[in-house]
Hints:
Pfam families: HTH_17. The protein is 55% helix and 12% strand.
Amino acid sequence: MQTRKVNLITSDQLTIQEAAKILNVSHAYLTQLLESGEIPDHKVGNTRRIFYQDLIDYKNIIDAKRQETLAELAKQAQELNMGY
């Protein structure tokens, strides 16, 4: 039997490390997203924090775009008779 580690979120605010783990991206890439304004953040002392709902909203938008892109690629493959 395989066991899995489960992380429970006990606050509506996440650290950069926690948010990066949820998105499965690097700390550096998430920092770029924050600096570009794609994901809103705020400071608590000297530490950046991200509201959980803001992160989930971003994730949902990215997931929807990914699905649209995959659907378009599948449609093009069908039209070009690529065999898959």
